[in-house]
Here is the input.
Amino acid sequence: MTTAARRIDSPLHSVADPIDALRVRADFPILETTVHGKPLVYLDNAATSQKPRAVIEAIMRYYQGTNANVHRGVHYLSEAATEDYEGARKIAQQFINAAHSHEIIFVRGTTEGINLVAQTFGRTRIGAGDEILITAMEHHSNIVPWQILCEEKGAKLRVAPINDHGELLLDEYAGLLGPQTKLVAVTHVSNALGTINPLERMVEMAHAHNVPVLVDGAQAVPHMKVDVQALDCDFYTFSGHKVYGPTGIGVLYGKTALLESMPPYQGGGDMISSVTFERTTYNKLPYKFEAGTPDIAGVIGLGAALTYVENLGIENIGAHEHNLLEYATAKLSAISDVRIIGTAKEKASVVSFVIEGVHPHDIGTILDQQGIAIRTGHHCSQPVMERFGIPATARASFAVYNTREEIEALVGGIQKVKEVFA
Ligand SMILES: Cc1ncc(COP(=O)(O)O)c(C=O)c1O
Here is the structure.
């Protein structure tokens, strides 16, 4: 029982696929792994993506050839490391079309990007009685930092609701924007449902009330072209590890004027211009927000990942994944007792589902025995689970290297689960 088939056109007749997934797979050494004697079928990409050789080798090259601290040395290695580090910043700038490279702040990931904004912009601009507007489909990373801030400041968290397909109710969102709203914080793509939000409209509506918008881009950047200037969002943050890069590194984009007006996030080395015991002055952007020795290898790895994606073409990757999404949606919809959770018209790369009478954890365990990796649980989106009246879902999520054969394997695996629980 599902409404998904109704909402996706011609699911079995997708457009020509611009990606040769078999060739791409050769770039990812881990995909040769066998699990429980079966070839690995990795469908947990929304949690983290696998890494191409280009990324692994870039990190190795740094540690083997140019390892030194950045920004501080005049010696050869330090200059080489700094050049690669700052080169990655330019790559990230171009990747999301930021106007300036100083608008790219390196952080640990999406979670830290959001916390940075909450603790700097939030602590100075949001006070008692003010409101922060989020949506009902946010990841915990885009809920809890705002709750912490609200508690500290006496501010209020407002939540724009979603419909039964997992789509934002835009009119309700519009109705929640008002003079008390000081920030909108919204996910670009829902990790639990796959919904793509109508960001341009949302930003326009918020700006009509002079409200800045922070976008959680963790699940968007790996799948679609993101142009922060076209979106006109004020902050945009994403994680490297979901876009074929290393863990522990991510990007926070912010418009220059906002970043300039914000106090530093953490104090320490590199973020200062001068220090005396009486007074410290802060460094210019982006260094004001990058205290201490950064994750140099991670930044260089992220640069290699974004270059890898650029070379394949993000639109090609998106088209390939969309084909897989349509195929999987049609196949899973056809299995009795499988219900897809999240049937928005605009979706990216995620199929969340439940099987009548089977706990998602059991689905994951039985699939694992067949070498198939999916995620089960609340996906750090407990309010989404509550909205749909379920404790958890099983979630398959696709990347550039996935194939239709892997979806067939998933379908076969689900049949096995059903047999076990028949
Ligand atoms: C939509 C969304 N936001 C935020 C995050 C947090 O990302 P990270 O753990 O890399 O900081 C995730 C991770 O799953 C996510 O899917």
Notes: The first strand starts at residue 34 and ends at 35. The chain has 15 helices and 17 strands.
